[in-house]
Specification:
mainly alpha, 78% helix, flat
Length: 105
């Protein structure tokens, strides 16, 4: 699925584009869009490279997202360590009340 657009919707967009611009102009338009997208990609890569180089020169950690993910995983692990015994106690209490009936999980 490409951007939540079905094949029929893409076909309709292509037909309308051909009707508006004509078949002879489509290659020019596509070429221009391709060049523009390439220039944007090159510009963003240059910006990323400059930020990375500047951060490395100043000893700044630029991989903040990875560090945040690690901390979140630690918190999740700690929460799981806390919640497992509580869940076992809850299951034991439910078994004592209802008897050894299978629970739907």
């Amino acid at each position: 699925m490409f951007l939540f657009i079905s094949g029929a919707e893409i076909f309709v967009v292509l037909v309308i584009t051909v009707m508006l611009f004509g078949a002879d102009k489509l290659p020019e338009i596509a070429r221009g869009l391709g060049k523009g997208m390439r220039q944007i990609k090159d510009a963003t890569n240059d910006i990323k490279r400059e930020i990375k180089n500047s951060a490395e020169k100043n000893d700044i950690d630029i991989d903040i997202a990875t560090n945040i993910r690690k901390e979140i995983n630690k918190v999740k692990d700690n929460f799981d360590d806390f919640s497992r015994p509580v869940s076992k106690i809850k299951d034991t209490i439910i078994d004592d009340i209802t008897g050894p009936v299978k629970r739907n999980k």
